[in-house]
Amino acid sequence: MVEIIEQDFVKNKELYKKIERELRKKIDKDIPIDHVGSTAIPDMIGKNIIDVLVGAKDQVQFQELAKILCEMGYFPSKNSRNEIYQFFASREEETGSGDVHIHLVMLNTDRYNEFLILRNYLLNNKDEALAYANCKREIIKNITAERKEYRSIKSEYVTKLLERAKKSFNNKN
Questions:
Q1: SS3 breakdown of the chain: % helix, strand, coil, rounded to 5?
Q2: Is 5 helix (H, G, I), strand (E, B) or coil?
Q3: φ, ψ of residue 26 in degrees (nearest 5)
Q4: Domain segments of the chain: what residues?
Q5: In what order do the strands lie in the sheet with 33-36?
Q6: How far is CA 73 from CA 62, 78, 86, 90, 119, in A?
Q7: Do the beta carbons of residue 103 and residue 53 sit within 8 Å?
Q8: Which pLDDT does position 33 carry in this prediction?
Q9: What is the tens place of the pLDDT at every residue in 91-123?
Q10: I need a labelling partner for 102 at 20 to 30 A (CA). Which of 18, 78, 109, 160 fits?
Q11: Within the chain, where are the H helices?
Q12: Does the CA dihedral 139-144-147-148 come out positive or negative?
């Protein structure tokens, strides 16, 4: 079951900073680490899971970072891994409020850039952020609270949202 809650942006920002400090003890300062996902957006509802984006410059660094994250106690997903992306969670079982998701992604790839473009777009477009929050509410209220189906329906919305975000980003550059 998916539980959507009002998230405490200030508290989550502090939690992200704590996570980043822990990561920096093991990860070089030149490696980008960013707060992404719904907890990075003020007034956004969500599952209250801190999403962290970590960028790797090449395959060697990607493998080194994956090893470090495992050593730090993060669990790699066997289903969410390819040559440019690896998902890690703070718990092996189903994650929930207060947990951490780490997205290890190769720098200079569309996948990496999309995390930042979407976050920045929602930070700079309050109406889009509100519409996204309302979409999440509607899915849970009127369609489903089952995690797999929720993710699938939300993914369709996020794909369209990301298209608008990319268009906005490209128009500014």
A1: 55, 20, 30
A2: strand
A3: -115, -20
A4: 5-172
A5: 33-36, 50-56, 100-106, 85-89, 75-81
A6: 17, 15, 15, 7, 26
A7: yes
A8: 98
A9: 988 777 889 999 999 999 999 999 999 999 999
A10: 160
A11: 9-24, 59-71, 110-124, 126-138, 147-172
A12: negative
Amino acid sitting at position 130: L
Distances (CA, A) of 149 to 33, 143, 155, 159: 30, 9, 10, 16
* Crossing angle for the helix pair 126-138 and 147-172, to the nearest 10 degrees: 170
Q: What is the mean pLDDT of residues 44-58?
A: 95
Is pTM beyond 0.85? Reply is yes
Q: Is it true that domain 5-172 has CATH number 3.40.640.10?
A: no
Nearest to 59 by CA among 25, 109, 116, 19: 109
Distance of alpha carbon 169 from alpha carbon 122, whole angstroms? 12
